[in-house]
Specification:
By secondary structure, this protein is α/β, with parallel strands linked by helices. The protein contains 19 helices and 19 strands. It has a seven-stranded mixed β-sheet, with helices on both faces. A five-stranded parallel β-sheet has the order 9-2-1-13-19, covered by helices on one side. α1 (10-21) runs parallel beside α12 (230-242) and α5 packs across α11 (212-220).
């Protein structure tokens, strides 16, 4: 089976690797000068900045992928578990002292104590919340993440039917509402709401089934691959090439060729590359609306006009002289008006989108853990400020966006008690929604992909297979199972399942050889 993969992000590399190991002849085409997609890097003055993912969660998804490839996460990556997992800093109200920061730890027992110290009874409540999260996570792994939803029988098992009421209740209750049933303190509630950010969604319209992410960070832990997240990309690319994948960079695909209703290849530099199967792992909106003729589009422009993209972001990469003990590897700043922040991220205010001020934001300080990402005596800061997916906000070099970045630096300096932060910055780069659109063909300039609201989750999400073109498949953040590096690895496995005719809902035990056009 001859396969062409469009896009060299983690979805494309993982799909190419799995299919090559299963016996396919695979060519991968990436538009940029190197692979990585959103998991990219930028270097300046001996600093190396990650420009995308920075939280290593759901290690079992990475373990599953590497196991299918005949290796392991331990062999491919140098992982360390973070302690504390992250730090939270809260906005001070006018005339009042700033609330004490809260640390979330690598052991659940410590977090029960932390919650109890903030609110009487909250420790026991967190225990119930995390137990529920673990139960939902277990169901998700068994029935909802590793499936293409193309058969009913696997969902008729007694275990799932017994828990159907519980699961349905979580579909129709918001994450924030469920968190509020367990804790009253607004600081604790925000901590439980935070997983919505990973999902490109608001906790006010995200189904509470996604509280499963609290199990992931409090029961399983938060990790970091030494050398940075690009080492994950390098490891998967190396495995793909070892199994025969031909990786072509600086090679944008301009068209998917369809013959008699079947994907027959792609056009690259005015040359047709023949294929039995085409897998689009670039942004799905771009693949569907720009690479396919209208008659072959399963998800035309009219479809995307009705859907909600996840947030975009103002990203700051800051090289800072001296140490920053005020910041952990992961630090979160929560504004008092959390709900207003989310409203601005998902809806234009008065017809205009803007960067919130003050903003709820995230800071990654990988030099806290990894001395290779900054020169000696310096720190490496990656700051992500969620904003509306609106390219009019701008990108690198935009004066208004640069001014917003200055405001964010001032906010961090004040809230984290680093008064001289701005004067210590020795290198700086920003990105905005326009950069995501220009560099990654991102739908509406989103930094993450389609938001995980109820109508855009699980079986409501775009499928991994074209309805109109045989032999055309998809993987990536806009399709099943969703946003994030673990989901993208699972999405790659879902493409394999399609081609293997595997309708199961559980992780694949072992790859079977794919012969001819089987399942295509």
């Amino acid at each position: 089976m001859k396969v062409v993969v469009i896009g060299g992000g983690i979805s494309g590399l993982a799909t190419a690797a799995l299919l090559a190991k299963a016996g396919c002849e695979v060519d991968l085409f990436e538009a940029r000068e190197r692979v990585g997609g959103r998991a990219y890097t930028w270097s300046s003055k001996k600093f190396t900045f990650e420009t995308g993912p920075s939280w290593y969660l759901m290690p079992d998804a990475f373990d599953q992928f590497f196991r299918l490839m005949g290796t392991s996460s331990a062999e491919q990556l140098d992982l360390v578990q973070l302690e504390p997992a992250y730090k939270t800093i809260f906005e001070a109200l006018p005339g009042q002292p700033a609330p004490e920061p809260i640390l979330i730890h690598d052991i659940l027992g410590k977090n029960l104590e932390v919650f109890e110290s903030v609110e009487k009874g909250a420790g026991e409540a967190l225990g119930r919340y995390v137990a529920s999260a673990a139960e939902v996570y277990d169901l998700a792994i068994k029935y909802f993440l590793y499936t293409n939803f193309d058969a009913v029988k696997p969902f008729m098992k007694g275990e799932l039917l017994k828990r159907a009421g519980m699961f349905l209740s979580h579909l129709f209750k918001s994450l924030d509402g469920f968190a509020g049933q367990h804790v009253r303190d607004e600081r604790l509630r925000k901590i439980l709401d935070f997983p919505a950010v990973f999902l490109g969604a608001s906790p006010y319209n995200t189904p509470s089934m996604y509280h499963l992410m609290t199990h992931v960070d409090m029961n399983v832990g938060v990790f970091y691959p030494q050398g940075g997240f690009y080492t994950i990309i390098e490891a998967i690319e190396k495995l793909a090439k070892a199994h025969g994948v031909r990786v072509h960079t600086s090679s944008p695909v301009s068209k998917i060729v369809v013959s008699d209703g079947r994907a027959a290849g792609v056009v690259v530099a005015d040359k047709v590359i023949d294929a039995d199967v085409v897998v689009g792992t670039a942004d799905l909106e771009f693949v569907e609306t720009k690479l396919l003729d209208k008659k072959w589009q399963t998800y035309p422009s009219s479809y995307w006009a009705k859907k909600q993209p996840g947030p975009s972001a103002l990203i700051l990469m800051l090289g800072v002289k001296g140490e920053l003990p005020q910041l952990e590897h992961h630090t979160l700043l929560y504004s008092e008006n959390w709900k207003k922040n989310f409203a601005g991220v998902f809806k234009k205010a008065d017809g205009k989108s803007a960067i919130a001020n003050p903003a709820s934001l995230y800071i990654c300080n990988p030099s806290k853990t990894d001395k290779t990402v900054a020169p000696k005596g310096h720190e490496n800061l990656f700051v992500l400020v969620p904003c509306a997916p609106d390219v009019s906000i701008g990108g690198e070099g935009d004066a208004k966006l640069e001014a917003a970045a200055d405001d964010i630096i001032d906010q961090i300096a004040e809230w984290a008690n680093i008064p001289d932060l701005k004067s210590r910055i020795v290198t700086r780069k920003i990105m905005g929604p326009a950069d995501f659109a220009n560099d990654l063909n991102a739908w509406s300039g989103t930094a993450l992909g389609m938001a995980h609201s109820l109508g855009q989750s699980a079986f409501f999400r775009p499928r991994n297979k074209s309805k109109k073109v045989k032999g055309l498949y998809y993987a990536g953040h806009n399709t099943l199972p969703g946003i994030g590096l673990p989901m993208c690895l699972i999405g790659a496995e879902l493409v394999y399942k399609h081609l293997a005719g595997d309708k199961s809902t559980t992780p694949t035990e072992a790859l079977k050889p794919l012969v001819g056009r089987a399942g295509a």
